[in-house]
Design brief:
Structural class: alpha/beta
Radius of gyration: 25 Å
CATH architecture of the largest domain: 3-Layer(aba) Sandwich
Strand content: 25-35%
CATH topology of the largest domain: Aminopeptidase
Number of helices: 11
CATH class of the largest domain: Alpha Beta
């Protein structure tokens, strides 16, 4: 049975107030113990939900980086699913075997402003030794008090990570962190590797190609590595991108399903038969390897002309502009959207001067693009954009953009046989041949 997502948590930013009612509702269930563990640096409560009375203890914590909310939604989905009446038989088979404790938002101050660090400006995940953050002290104290057999360290990663060898986005990345610089493998770390391998094997086959493995270089300041040194089978799960899924709902669903499968496997110890080599067979992930838009075989007219690939990154989670991230031979890279242009030509386009009021719909905008206009110059108040595409309005024309280069704004046209084939508008590809005129 699929895990239904909790409503209202499908955003790219999740704050403490967004989960408060869900946590309260779950905490009122007779099978759940709701605890306030302490407060953040700015005084926001940090809570834990506990259920089950079994001897195998499992600890999960999310959003220790405030701008990494995917697993927060996923663990609440998981708890709601376990406590649903139709899951009573399943939970009855688990509750006497495991005790599950979930901290659904460790860094509420960072979450409030969509910031990685806490309110002190400290990365909590690099505070495992110094313990100068109240959130870090709380987590370490909880780990030592609860003494989990298995710990799930749940994060988000940059959507530009790819799975090595196939170029797919790393929608899920995993790691059984090292507990010493030698990357030794004791029984608890081996168990983490086995459980990770089991989780990948039980994922739907098409999604397994979206799973990558992090490098296991020891990080002396990180919580995962330090908790592994306490003998906890520590598992890092990082949520990444997936095509046409800016709010990471695919990763959210995969997280919830993986964590549910993990509880079954831990309760019944079925993962201990998995060959640890299956963990090492998971391909490593590669950072900065997936562009939002990848254009290949694009001709640039010059003296002489030349052909390039172009990678573009959009600003999905900010008000910034999309930029050209790289040009040249980008054959090792992939794109969420990839277009082979077969030698079509880059055209910087020309400015359209705003001298009178102008109302744009799709048809009018497409006509201007076909006529070679890529942006507008003049009083932005004269332009009303009712089209589905973004517009760029500047006081002066775009300058020094005749040759595409890194960090340039991603606003230009693409021509084929002197006709405008399409446009890139703030990193978004617009195919003009498919637009009615």
């Amino acid at each position: 049975m699929a895990i239904e997502p909790e409503p209202g948590l499908d955003h790219w930013q999740i704050k403490a107030r967004d989960i408060a009612l869900t946590v309260q509702r779950l905490g009122q269930h007779p099978a759940v113990q709701l605890d306030t563990l302490g407060k953040s640096y700015q005084g926001r409560p940090i809570q834990a939900l506990q259920l089950g009375v079994g001897e195998r203890r499992v600890l999960m914590w999310t959003q220790m980086h405030g701008d990494e909310p995917t697993a927060t939604a996923a663990v609440l989905d998981l708890l709601a699913h376990l406590l649903a009446p139709e899951q009573a038989a399943r939970w009855a088979g688990l509750q006497n075997k495991i005790t599950l404790r979930v901290i659904p938002m460790l860094n509420p101050d960072g979450a409030e402003i969509f910031q990685r660090q806490n309110a002190q400006g400290i990365d909590i995940n690099r505070d495992a030794r110094a313990l100068q953050t109240p959130e870090g002290r709380l987590l370490m104290a909880e780990a030592k008090r609860f003494r989990p057999h298995v710990g799930f360290n749940l994060h988000d990663q940059d959507r530009r990570y790819a799975v090595d060898g196939n170029g797919k986005p790393a929608t899920i990345s995993v790691l059984a962190p090292a507990y010493d610089p030698a990357k030794s493998v004791n029984d608890s770390r081996r168990a983490a590797m086995q459980l990770i391998a089991h989780l990948k094997q039980t994922m739907p086959a098409p999604m397994q190609q979206y799973v990558g493995r992090y490098d296991d270089t020891y990080s002396a300041r990180a919580f995962g590595d330090n908790l592994a040194a306490l003998g906890i089978s520590t598992i890092l799960i990082e949520s990444g991108g997936y095509p046409n899924d800016p709010n990471r709902q695919v990763a959210r669903a995969l997280n919830a399903q993986m964590l549910l499968e993990a509880l079954d496997a831990i309760a019944h110890q079925t993962y201990r038969d998995v060959n640890p080599e299956s963990y090492w067979a998971i391909p490593e992930n590669r950072e900065q390897s997936v562009f939002d838009l990848l254009l290949t075989q694009l001709t640039v007219k010059g003296h002489p002309s030349y052909q390039i690939d172009m990678g573009i990154q959009q600003a999905l989670y900010s008000d910034g502009d999309a930029r050209i991230a790289d040009v040249g031979d980008l054959s090792p890279y992939a794109g969420y959207q990839s277009l082979q242009l077969d030698g079509a030509e880059y055209d910087a386009g020309r400015p359209f001067a705003l001298t009178d009021s102008l109302v744009l719909d799709d048809v009018a905008y497409a006509r201007l693009l076909r006529e070679g206009y890529s942006h507008f110059v003049g009083d932005a108040g004269l332009l009303s954009n009712n089209s589905q595409w973004p517009v760029l309005t500047l006081p002066q024309p775009l300058a020094d953009n005749q040759l595409p280069r890194r960090r340039m704004p991603a606003w230009f046209l693409v021509r084929k046989n002197s006709r405008v084939l399409g446009a890139v508008l703030n990193g978004q590809w617009v195919a003009l041949q498919e637009t009615s005129s």
